[in-house]
Amino acid sequence: xxxxxxxxxxxxxxxxxxxxxxxxxxxxxxxxxxxxxxxxxxxxxxxxxxxxxxxxxxxxxxxxxxxxxxxxxxxxxxxxxxxxxxxxxxxxxxxxxxxxxxxxxxxxxxxxxxxxxxxxxxxxxxxxxxxxxxxxxxxxxxxxxxxxxxxxxxxxxxxxxxxxxxxxxxxxxxxxxxxx
Length: 180
Description:
This protein is an all-alpha fold. 71% of the residues lie in helices and 0% in strands. The protein has helices at 10-23, 26-50, 78-87, 89-102, 104-112, 115-120, 124-140, 144-161, 165-179. Helix 3 packs across helix 4 and helix 4 packs parallel to helix 7 (124-140). The mean pLDDT is 84.
């Protein structure tokens, strides 16, 4: 793995999952998952707010949840925020995909807070993948507004990439159709 980063071996992860399933009540597992997602969302939000925004996409709204993390954990400078988002890129992608499986609105909040850094790192495929997944989940749930928002973000990511204007035009036309 990466220097300074710890990874949980597959066997230890499987053992922990089996113990959790056997010993922890489902409501406790759900609460722990909520705290985990809330903490990551809080960190990603703070880091994202340190970076310059993207000119085509407004910043995400302020979080309405109460803080779950102690204040000293946040990256405090734009350089530290960019470094944190870069180091946590794979974790944030995995976490956002996991959130999308059960809560596409949470996944959209997480993806919103990765947009600027993905553009800065030229990680357009990451952003496109997330927004496509979120749009599909929102569409399956019948949430037209959330699906249109996700398609708009997908179009913005496509334009930011700088070479797929026809694809972006089709995505934006689809958004307009959804808003009618």
